[in-house]
Amino acid sequence: MPxxxxxxxxxxxxxxxxxxxxxxxxxxxHRHTEGQLLYPSTGVLATTTDRGTWVTPPNxxxxxxxxxxHYHRAYGRTDVRVVEVPGALCASLPDRPMVFTTSPxxxxxxxxxxxxxxxxxxxxxxLREVVVDELVDVPDExxxxxxxxxxxxxxxxxxxxxxxxxxxxxxxxxxxxxxxERTLSRLxxxxxxxxxxxxxxxxxxxxxxxxxAEGDAVIDTATRLGWANPTSFIEAFTAxxxxxxxxxxxxxxxxxx
Length: 257
Description:
Order of helices and strands: EEEEEEHEHHEEHHHHHHH
Structural class: alpha+beta
Domain HTH araC/xylS-type: 154-251
CATH class of the largest domain: Mainly Beta
Largest sheet: 9 strands, antiparallel
Organism: Streptomyces mobaraensis
Helix content: 40-55%
Keywords: DNA-binding, Repressor, Transcription, Transcription regulation
Protein name: HTH-type transcriptional regulator RipA
InterPro entries: AraC-bd, Homeodomain-like_sf, HTH_AraC, RmlC-like_jellyroll, RmlC_Cupin_sf
């Protein structure tokens, strides 16, 4: 759980709002009776529930349905735009947390709703419907890192969280936690729905999203996170994010401009 440096006003009930978070700021665990969309117009926001962690850079938006306990952590100076989704509209969106790509129309609608502009209640409601409509047919992004319940598997993922760049094999990690490679491989598949290699790649890509958003170079990011070479990093990043690290950085720069 993140260390809470201060508690920005993101979990108080309000229809639409914004909050400025410094690097490392966290918001304590909380839940909402309505759905919530969070869009970091700058910085990167991580949202964690008991199902895992979602990392949201400025070209993505996080959806958290009603009732899910969650907490946040900011990476870099993060301007978070928050839009509450009434229950009647929640039925159109998934019943689990996820991350969506932010289209130009969606981004502008989120900024208008949270920018302090005076809007008539009916106009605000229509704009919120536009936001939901923009998300209905957008595929979710594979930026979710699930977390295990099994103590043996959690011991392995804790080691990887502490050192994403470790070159240790699953067999080597298993020896450190007292579990066989075969057992751990089965647990990755049954509990997390993916292989050890896939889970570690997702973890590294989540770290890469944060580093690249903070201005790190692609080659430096690849080296720091343990990829054998920049090509391997670019291939893994593109397969998960849907764009190359260079394209991701350029898009962030355009949005900041």
